[in-house]
Every structure is written in C-alpha cells, then in structure tokens.
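Possible regression after last week's pipeline update?

I re-ran a chain I had predicted before the update to compare outputs. Posting the input and the new output here so someone can diff against the archived version. Not blocking, just want to make sure nothing changed silently.
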Amino acid sequence: MKRRSLRLRLLLAASISVGLALVLAGIGLVALFDRHVERRINAELHTFVNQIAAAVAFGADGTPAVNVPLADPRFARPYGGLYWQIDEAGQVVLRSRSLWDLVLALPAPEGDPGHPQRYDLDGPQGQALHAYERRIVFPVGGVERELRIVVAVDQRELLNARGEFVEDIVPALSLLALVLVAAAWLQVNVGLKPLEAVRQGVAAIRSRQARRLSADFPDEIMPLVAEVNDLLAEQDQTVERARMRAADLAHGLKTPLTILAHDAEKLRRRGEGEMAGEIEGLVKAMQRHVDHELARVRVAANSRRQEARADLGKVLTGIVGAIKRSPQGERCSWDLDLGVAGDVAVDSHDLAEILGNLIDNAAKWATAEVRIKTVADGPVALVAIEDDGPGVPPDALAALGRRGVRLDERVAGTGLGLAIVRELLEAYGGQLTLANRAEGGFRAEIRLPRRIAD
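New output (post-update):
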C-alpha cells in the first residue's frame, strides 16, 4: 500500500485507536485489580484485628496479653511480612514475634474509637507496610482501657499480585489487539469495496461496456455516483450538440465551396489560371478542415457506443471487392487471407472508414500486388495490409498520420486519411503501426479489440 493510500490511513488510524484503547483499558484493569486486592487485604487485616481483640486478656495486675496464637505462620516468623502491635497510651504493650526487635512507629490516632484507620508506614528491613488499625475500649475492673490494635502487611504482596496480574493480562490484551486490528482491516476492506466498484464502473464506461454507473451502491456513495452520471449525461449532450453544429456547418459550407470551385473553373476557362489556382487551393484547404472536423465529431460520438460490433471478415471482403473495381485496384493482384477474423468491438461504419483508407492507400501506391492478412492474438484482432510499392522515406515515417500531410501531391487525396484512421483507432482502444518492408514496399498494421461471444 502506498503512503497516500486511504486504506493504509484507515488501518493506521484503527491500529492507533485500538492500541490506545487497550493501553487505557489495561491501566484501568490494573487500577481495578489494585482496588480489589486492597479491599481483600483490608478485609483480611480487619479479620486479624478482630481475632487479636478477641484473644486479648488482662492479668490480675492489669497487664494485657494475647493468649491464643494466630493461625497465620507469618506472625511467628521474624520479618515474615505480616505483623501486629498493640499500643496503650502511646506505649507498646504487645507485638508479634515477626517484628522481632522492631517497634512500629504509628501515626497519631484519628477519629473516634471503633472506626478503622488505614495508612502506610515503614516496616523492618526497609519494607513498606500497609496498616489497618482499630482502637478498642476494654472494661477492666470497672475502668475503661483503650488499646490500639494494628495489623500490617508487607506491600510487596500487593505488588507481586499486581505483577502476576499484568503478566496474565498482557498476552490477553495483545491477542485482543490482533483480533481488533484484523477486524478493522476487514471493516476497512468491506467499507472501501463500493469505491472499487465505482472505479470498475468508470473503467467499464471508458471501455464502452457501459454508459452509466449502476444505482446499486450504499447511500453514502450515491451522491458521487449521481454526480458522475450527471457529468456523463452532460458530456453526451455536449458531444451531440457539437456533432449537430459541425454537421450544420458542413452543410452550410458545402454550397459556397461548390460555387467557389465552379467560379474557379470559369476563371480558368477565361484564361485567368493563376487566380483560379489560388481559389481552388483555398477551396481544397477549407474542404480538408471541414472533413477532418466532421471525422473528429463522428469519432467522439461513436466512441461512446458500448455495444459496437462489426464482422471484420465481412467488412474486409466488401471493401476489397469495391476497390478491386477501381482503376487503381484493377491493375493489382490481391491476396486476401482472412485467417481468424470474427467480430471486433468497433462500429461497422468506423471499421469501414479505417480499412477503406488503409486499403485505398495500398492500392494507390502498389506496383502490382496488395496482400491483406488477419490474425487473432488473444483479445486483439491484427490486420496487416502490405503493398509492393516504393515505400516511404525513413525520415518521413514519423510525419505520416498528421493532419494534411501528403507525401506526393500528384496522388489525389486530402492528407486526412491516416489522421482519421489514427483518431478512430484511439477512440476504440486500437493501434496503428506503419513501417517499410525489408523486401520493399509498405506495411500498415492495425490492432483492434475483439468482441468475444457472450
């Protein structure tokens, strides 16, 4: 895909969006996991505080003691990661074996007794602890004694749980990212299919297989389709108006040109040959321009016909038969090899114009022989027209086919035949190749699109 590809842009946008969304989702999931784990830890610490409070007993001298050991072995293992401590009036009275020789530095109490308090503090060996505290009032001998019971756990347990959760969730999110990007790729390709259909429709119009884009497109594409169809309709109207105007112009000029030619002939009979020649030259030049423009208009009109079809063999046979009876054709021998002909995707009148000009030229310049051969080359029909005439000077080959170019003024013609042939072939997607033959003579080769039977 190219840098300016719309598909690439959409895929990049979708990939970036999916990546950002999954990163944010991952951060959110980790935060939710932390909150969940913290709630579970607080619930566990709350249970430990209640167990310690239930196990507190006061001796005869009023000294508190925890007579029932807690079930979690971390309380008994030095620096085991789970600790408890009991303070009274700012003094430590009891603590777990896990604290060993360390005393937790508790912050000042907040709130009323009975309400839990949560905070972070420093533990043994640089541990960061999460603490849960409750102040509980015990009636002892008619006296109320307030004890601060604190249970703390090493925060590395929370961090380890978070790390394990991240290790589990990253592959899952990566797999989800691949699935979402694949879904975005599928969505982009499905979404862009109507544009590809529009391109194919325009290509069909260009190749004359259709006249308009169909109406079977999504609603979002229909405004574009309507604009293209309106543009094509306007173009057809413009071509038709131009054709009619050109025809009107030709008919309007036909009579004045005929009168001028007649007047030139009168002047020549009176002995005014120079003036007559000038007028005749102007008449011929004007006639060439009119003929050329009429041919161009017909090319523009006929090239819009998407169902153009002509029998190549039939058209060739008719043209050769007609030219054989002309003065130039009667002096030549003719070799017509139709080979594989069939139908071509060209209007029959335009095909006759193309072949007629080329075969007529071959008959004019041939010394004694004209050979015509057709060959099928896949979707193309090839027609080769050869004569045994003098050929064309190499430096003049490039000029053949230009408007009004004639290599010999002594041979009748307007110099528009090859120009019209080229323009007709270009309109139908064909090609014209002109070259001298190695053994002498000239060869004109045309390639026409075949009309394959449905």
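Follow-up from reviewer: compared with the archived run. Confidence is low (pLDDT under 50) at residues 403-415. Marking as no regression found.
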